Amino acid sequence: MKSIYRIVLLAVFTFSFTGGYPQQDPETEKKIETLVSQMTLAEKVGQMNQLNGGRPAGYVAEAVRNGQVGSILNGTDVKTINELQRIAVEESRLKIPLVFARDVIHGYKTIFPIPLGQAASWNPAIAEKGAQVAAQEASSAGIRWTFAPMIDVTREPRWGRIAESCGEDTYLTSVMEVAMIKGFQGDNLSAPTSIAACAKHFAGYGAAEAGKDYNTTWIPEQLLREVYLPPFKAATDAGAATFMCAFNDLNGVPASANEFLIRDILRDEWKYDGMMVSDWGSVKEMVMHGFCADEKEAAERAAKAGVDMDMDDQVYFHHLEQLVKEGTVDEKLLDEAVRNILRLKFRLGLFENPYADEKTANDFYRESSLEAAKQAAIEGTILLDNKNSVLPLQNTITSVAVVGPLSHAPADQIGTWCFDGEPAHSVTPAMAIQKEYGSKIKVLTEAGLTYSRDKNKEGIEKAVAVGKQADVILFFAGEEAILSGEARCRADIGFPGAQTEMLEALKQTGKPVVMIVMCGRPMTIGKEIEMADATLLAFHGGTMAGPALADILIGKAVPSGKLPVTMPRMAGQIPIYYNHKSTGRPASDITLIDDIEIGAEQTSIGFTSYHLDAGDSPLYPFGYGLSYTTFEYSSIRLDKNELTKDSPIMASVTVKNTGNYKAAEVVQLYIRDLVSGSVTRPVKELKGFRKITLEPGESEEVSFEITEEMLRFWNTRNEWISEPGDFHLFIGSSSADVKQAHFVLK
Ligand code: BGC
Comparing C-alpha atoms, which of 37, 47, 42 is closest to residue 324? Predict the structure, then answer.
């Protein structure tokens, strides 16, 4: 075995996201101690209780008055929020303000693309702006705490919540979520337009077996440390004010009572002093998990593990006081939880400024917010295929047919987790194309299928009739919003309904068909992409999806999105992700099922690692995305070939726009540790990226600093280490299209 650098300072491993984390303020800590010392046991339990605002108003008000509530989720009317706050700060004994929470996931009223779509922009500024607009709108409605960002890395497109994630990569997720946290919380959490972020779901939720929501997760510590936890560490470094624990059990222990996660890692190792809330019902669900005998034991286990606030299931409220009185739970644990809760309220400035300003309330849909949402939808759209450069549409066309179930689906285009989004404000592709181009060309509209699961053959015929009259057919297909998101998991991730039949019928018109896919996950649509002349993957693009797509189709905007997740050919390939390990027999000489000779012998087609029906490659790799222009990458230049701990390598490429459009490109950096004596390493890992914009003919040098820290991994002795030896470094336009160089870590 080679000698290794043992990194004793575990806490040193970060993604180099610095700053952000609020230091404890001694004055505030004193105030917290004073309050804690004045609180009765019942009042402490009250602070740890989060109530759903949807419960009967009289009950909620009384509970607030009695100091039995610390937070309310899902109150959305400013007047009601302020009235409850008034009761808390005027009528409750200790006058502790409430904190009002809501799932504001990718917009409050002005809806941005689903998080997966934002991640496809590979532009943190897009994510930051989206969160900032969400915070401004939500805070104007009295909400000061959102349950976002969801930073669960996931390799599971069957899992409906992939829509809410930033995809399969740890580094990309970390960069995007840090931007979101910054957007929500601003520079100062106590500013009235800032809202507290919540890093969720801690931890491992994205690894749900079979991509089925709430399912068991088994994640060895090495994988947990390298893939699933780093975004959470980045969240603590970025100052995320709160954390939420996950529904799943992790290696046999539910996340809601997981002392290893919450105490050992989050509190002791990472020194996190923010607040931890349970997920909705996750504490009492430990009974269903078969982990606790009853709700009382569930309350005990969660409190002991360090869950500070119980989201609506009221098991703390019903049992904690008793548990303390009988000596099962130490009151000191409650003091610790209450400190974390009060610290959040102080950081939000709620003691000084508890109310939402009713004069400036409900400030939604600013022009600048709509513009930002449109830009996010543009940058989050990925050009997957463009046969014969069908796109952008030529200005010689005189008519288009706008068809398909997503062409005018105002509710579906805003996607999952939009409690407050208003479909009436959505600008659909049909509306936008009509408005923008209706005076210049003939715009014919006919959805054909009225929703994605529709199987109506007559509808298809109507759309075909319209298609025949047009120069180009624009087919808006995909999934309805209800087919992705929480508990919306699918075993078949192809097009539902008769969309494929519709595409076949449209193709038979002989007209060019451009397919625009609006969905909540990567879909297995290889056959459909083959049939279409061009395909754009737009995800659920939000309020302004229509204008964004209209601009892209006509070439006013150039697609620059890249896949934040691998697109499989078939669901049977899942899990399929770019940063996999190498087997001892990587795929070679692939013989697919129909090429096997009848009666072939056992040894005739070799013994390597692939599927007989899918081969070894995905439909599209992570990081992939085309443009209307072309980019040429030079070979990689290294300033030296040997890296030491104190002397990083600079790696550079020159990227040239060799086409005819001004366009943006995401330059991606990957690294491979060729030989590791401790644990096998992935074939590639994303370590950096830059999004640059180039005029036709223009070149730019893009450089990355390669440090020893980037090469660290978690070994079997539970240490972060880097191993001297040979490395490959790749720079390119996707995880599969790269230039390669070699260096040595000394
Ligand atoms: C989800 C959380 C969400 C919570 C509150 C749960 O079902 O898992 O992500 O924040 O509900 O709405």
Answer: 42
pLDDT in tens, 183-197: 999 999 999 999 999
Residue 11, exposed/middle/buried by CB under 10 A (0-12, 13-18, 19+)?
Answer: exposed
Q: Is the Cβ–Cβ distance between 503 and 526 less than 8 Å?
A: no
CB 494 within 8 A of CB 458: no
Q: Which residues on neighbouring strands pair with residue 563, listed in sequence order?
A: none
* Ligand 1 atom 12: residue of nearest CA: 103
Query: What whole-number distance in Å separates Cα of residue 465 and Cα of residue 580?
Result: 47
- Tell me, using a 6 A CB cutoff, whether residue 200 lines ligand 1: yes
Q: Which residues make Cβ contacts (< 8 Å) with residue 450, sequence separation at least 6?
A: 405, 456, 459
First to last CA, the chain: 15
Please report the atom of ligand 1 found closest to the CA of residue 247: 8
420 an active-site residue?
no
Nearest CA to ligand 1 atom 11: 280
Distance from the CA of 200 to the center of ligand 1, in angstroms?
9
Query: What single-letter amino acid sits at 156?
Result: E
Angle at alpha carbon of residue 165, lines to 243 and 419, rounded to 5° = 80
**Whole-number pLDDT of residue 76:** 76
Classify burial at 37, counting beta carbons within 10 Å of its beta carbon; exposed 0-12, middle 13-18, buried 19 or more: exposed
Output the pLDDT for position 34.
Answer: 98
Q: Which parts of the chain sit beneath pLDDT 50?
A: 1-20
Distance CA 323, CA 320 (A): 5
CA of 405 to the centre of ligand 1 (A): 29
Q: Rounded to the nearest whole angstrom, what is the distance from the C-alpha of residue 153 to the centroid of ligand 1?
A: 17
Q: What is the 3-state secondary structure (H, E, C) of 433-472?
A: HHHHHCCCCEEEEECCCCCCCCCCHHHHHHHHHHHHCCCE
pLDDT of residue 3: 41
Q: Say what the pLDDT of residue 22 is.
A: 63
Indicate which residue of 279, 308, 312, 412 is catalytic.
279
Q: Which residue's CA is the closest to the ligand 1 atom numbered 7? A: 280
312 lines ligand 1 (CB under 6 A): no
Q: Whose CA is nearest to atom 2 of ligand 1?
A: 279
User: Hey, what are 275's tokens?
Assistant: 């607040």
- Separation of 152 CA from ligand 1 center, angstroms? 13
